[in-house]
Design brief:
Pfam family, one: TPR_8
Number of strands: 0
Protein name: Tetratricopeptide repeat protein
Distance between the termini: 30 Å
Largest sheet: none
Radius of gyration: 52 Å
InterPro entries: Bac_ResReg_Asp_Phosphatase, TPR-like_helical_dom_sf, TPR_rpt
Family: Belongs to the Rap family.
Strand content: under 5%
Subcellular location: Cytoplasm
């Protein structure tokens, strides 16, 4: 029986070649270096990451690389063109247990899609980043996520939903002592209170933002506070804040606020001075026209007031049209968003299917390896059993051969003795009858020696033929198959030819049943106890003890019967 193990091992090596990758040097020190310089020197981090662009990464390292690359590009204001690369990192970390990197990956998916003008997708990704925020111990990251989500709602004019996220952003920035983050998030929160007609809350948060910024307070806070105080008729406070706003050429939004303030305080010439330039900017033209119409009315210039009012209505119609167009675009964006969500779901299903296939391949490899080990063990056991049988038969043959040779040597000694006796009788002139008797005994012994020599040669040839016979191999190589009647007949005939009518002589000793005869035949060809049990469907130990008792009229063991059968 040929050993199948080399072929099986070759197959396993080929499978392993497809499934495995060689070891690589750990990139942990490199990632640690990038993380350390990212907050203060993102441009240096981006340069180092670009140098690694052609590196062959493991799946985990590739996800880490793409996440850090996206972070560095976002911090250095590199405009993205696609979200396909950060999507690889996001989907990898979605299957991991690292909640911080998972949230970070979804945050940058949101940032990229926000830059790509996909607000609905960006909103989804920001919300995904906050799914398990209680498990994320990174308040800087959570603060940025909440702040960007609030700003996204603000840009979409959904001010009420922006407010709780901006409050949460302020809380996270406060936990890490980030005064700048708190200041800007507070300003954005004040804007939303202003837009939702909550002036007291808006004033509180504008002043809080001003306090947190200190000397770094920006012009927009002063201007927005001036506008807010003007809206609620608190002109002294409005004037104090508007005086802090620097007059910069071309900054029409601040001029519009000043013009509104002077109009409300009945300083019409100053109001016109600031409002007229605002007609040159598309963002402030409609509001400036509206305020100038009121200014003309205050001057009793009704004709100019009517013309400005008509111009304002035309601009309003244009603004309404733009809003309708924007509404259509938002609707289309919603449909695109749904299509993209469906595509993402399909991609997630595909990834899950591939993961399932990978686990299945691993399971198949394990099962194949176990099957190979089982086959190898069975082949080894079969080979060892065959070797034991051959060694046992060789010992039996050698014992028989030694017995025959001792008999021949004993006969030779008797022949020599008879020859000496015949020679003495010749010298002593004994009777003819005595000499013939001795001569006959000598011839009988010589014939016996010749027969023993011939029997040894015949037996060696017969045993060699038995070991090479098909019926012998059939019983040894296929012990689990039930033999046919012709197989039993062939085995009985072969053993009778090899061992001098083995079956006939056995039947003469005791009245054995058919199954007992078969047990003796199988014992003679060296089958083990389990093989005999499987072949006969009968407990071989019980059966062979019963055979021994029938043959010798006393109790005996299986080994006693085996020794008898080997010599019989």
């Amino acid at each position: 029986m040929r050993n199948p193990l080399p072929h099986i091992l070759l197959s396993l090596l080929l499978l392993a070649g497809f499934a495995c990758q060689g070891g690589r040097e750990s990139l942990a020190p490199f990632w640690a270096k990038i993380d350390s310089i990212m907050p203060t020197r993102p441009d240096s981090a981006l340069r180092l990451l670009r140098d690694k662009a052609n590196e062959r990464f493991t799946k985990a390292d590739r996800a880490r690389y793409l996440l850090l690359r996206t972070e560095a590009e976002d911090k250095t204001y590199v405009t993205p063109t696609t979200d396909s690369l950060i999507a690889i990192a996001a989907h990898y970390y979605e299957e991991s247990d690292n909640e911080r990197l998972k949230a970070k990956a979804w945050y940058y998916m949101g940032r990229v899609n926000q830059e790509l003008k996909r607000p609905l997708l960006a909103q989804d990704y920001y919300l995904k980043a906050l799914r398990h925020q209680t498990l994320v111990d990174d308040h800087a990251l959570l603060g940025r996520v909440c702040n960007h989500l609030g700003m996204l709602y603000t840009y979409q004019d959904v001010y009420e939903r922006a407010i709780p996220y901006q409050k949460e952003a302020i809380r996270h920035f406060a936990l890490i002592g980030d005064s700048t983050g708190q200041a800007f998030a507070t300003r954005d929160l004040a804007r939303n209170f202003h837009m939702t007609n909550q002036p007291d809350s808006a004033i509180f948060y504008y002043r809080l933002a001003e306090k947190r910024m200190g000397s770094r307070a920006i012009q927009s806070i002063y201007a927005e506070l001036g506008s807010l105080y003007t809206d609620i008729g608190r002109y002294d406070e409005a004037a104090s804040y508007l005086r802090k706003v620097r007059e910069e050429e071309g900054d029409f939004s601040y001029d519009l606020i000043r013009g509104q303030f002077y109009l409300e305080t009945n300083r019409l010439d100053s109001a016109e001075f600031y409002l007229r330039p605002c007609l040159n900017d598309g963002k402030t033209k409609a509001a400036a026209t509206y305020y100038l119409a009121h200014l003309a009315y205050a001057r009793a210039d009704y004709r100019a007031c009517a013309e400005l009012q008509r111009a304002y209505e035309i601009l309003q119609d244009s603004i309404v049209g733009q809003k309708q167009t924007e509404s259509i675009r938002k609707t289309e964006a919603l449909y695109r968003h749904q299509e993209m969500r469906q595509a993402l779901n399909e991609q997630a299903l595909l990834i899950a299917h591939r993961e399932k296939e990978r686990y299945l391949y691993a399971l198949l490899c394990v099962l194949l390896a176990l099957a190979c080990l089982a086959l190898h063990r069975r082949w080894r056991n079969t080979r060892e059993a065959a070797q034991r049988r051959e060694e046992e038969m060789a010992r039996t043959f050698e014992r028989q051969r030694q017995s025959d040779r001792r008999q021949i040597a004993d006969n030779e000694r008797q022949i020599a003795t008879l020859r000496d006796q015949i020679d003495r009788l010749d010298n002593e002139r004994t009777t003819k009858w005595e000499r013939q008797k001795l001569q006959l005994e000598k011839q009988l012994l010589e014939t016996s020696n010749a027969l023993l020599s011939n029997e040894e040669e015949r037996r060696d040839a017969a045993i060699a033929g038995l070991l090479e016979s098909d019926v012998y191999k059939r019983f040894h190589d296929k012990p689990t198959q039930r033999p046919r009647s012709e197989d039993w007949e062939a085995l009985e005939r072969l053993l009778d030819e090899t061992y001098n009518q083995f079956t006939c002589r056995l039947k003469e000793l005791a009245p054995l049943s058919d199954v007992e005869i078969k047990a003796c035949l199988l014992t003679k060809i060296g089958l083990g106890a389990n093989q005999i049990t499987n072949t006969l469907n009968y407990n071989s130990s019980v059966l062979r003890k019963r055979i021994y008792k029938k043959l010798f009229k006393r109790e005996g063991t299986v080994e006693d019967l085996k020794r008898f059968i080997e010599k019989f």
